[in-house]
Amino acid sequence: MKNSILLLFTVAAVFTACNQKSEKAAEAIANAEATPSGTKEERIKRGEYLVTVMGCNDCHTPKKMTAQGPVLDSSRMLSGHNGSVPSSGFDTALTRKGEWIIMSSGITSFAGPWGMSFAANLTPDATGLAGWTIDNFKTAIKKGKFKGIEAERTLLPPMPWQNLVNISDGDAEAIFDYLQSLKPVSNKVPNAIIAQH
Predict the structure, then answer these.
(1) Which residues pair with 71 in a beta bridge?
(2) Most exposed among 27, 61, 76, 152, judged by the fewest C-beta atoms under 10 Å?
(3) Positions in the chain whose pLDDT score sits under 70
(4) Distance between CA atoms of 105 and 88, rounded to whole angstroms?
(5) What sign does the dihedral 159-191-176-124 (CA atoms) show?
(6) 90-109 burial, b if ≥16 CB within 10 A, otherwise e?
(7) Is 76 exposed, middle or buried (0-12, 13-18, 19+ CB in 10 A)?
(8) Backbone phi, then psi, for 63, in 5-degree steps?
(9) Are 161 and 155 in contact (CB under 8 A)?
(10) pTM confidence score
(11) From the centroid of its chain, how far is CA 69?
């Protein structure tokens, strides 16, 4: 019995110590990311890391089909849906039911109950993010507003902007710095086709 009580107190003490360290570590990380820091090159590196782990390339970079399946087309990195590829028709009855979402083979356009959406060009070209401010970018990813303008429509699926509402300003700025450092790719992405219900 004495050993059981001693074990219980030991486990409780270890748990409390670990929990306090976890809370302090989380607070330190949050404070470190609250404002942009470091050199521009360090912020760009952080932005590249975030874009990679957040899976932005999954939708915003066109793919090449290979024997192993689709791979990123590095020559068109983050340039969005290829505007020169015509949109094909799809069974709207199937997608309107909400049971199916259909995507292009390049994984850059999507059809569902909302209509048809196309991944945006995120490069610093006039057809992409050239001319955007950091405030436009934050409004787009944190509030889900098209073109980063408050009065515009909400971004369409599958853009997971709801997952980004709490991103720190420092991380948002690092992502923006990285995107602005990319090679500009001229690619006018088609306008979304909004479903009429």
Answers:
(1) 64
(2) 27
(3) 1-37, 88-91, 94, 197
(4) 12
(5) positive
(6) eeeeebbeeeeeeebebbbb
(7) buried
(8) -115, 155
(9) yes
(10) 0.78
(11) 22
For the chain, the structural domain boundaries read 1-34, 40-194
| Predicted local distance difference test score (pLDDT) of residue 80 | 97
- Structure tokens of 72? 């990123």
Q: How far apart are CA 9 and CA 26, in angstroms?
A: 26
Provide CB contacts within 8 A for 71, sequence distance 6+: 63, 64
What number of other Cβ atoms are within 10 A of residue 49's Cβ?
14
Of 178, 141, 181, the closest CA to residue 46 belongs to 178
Cα–Cα distance measured from residue 79 to residue 59, given in angstroms and rounded to the nearest whole number = 10
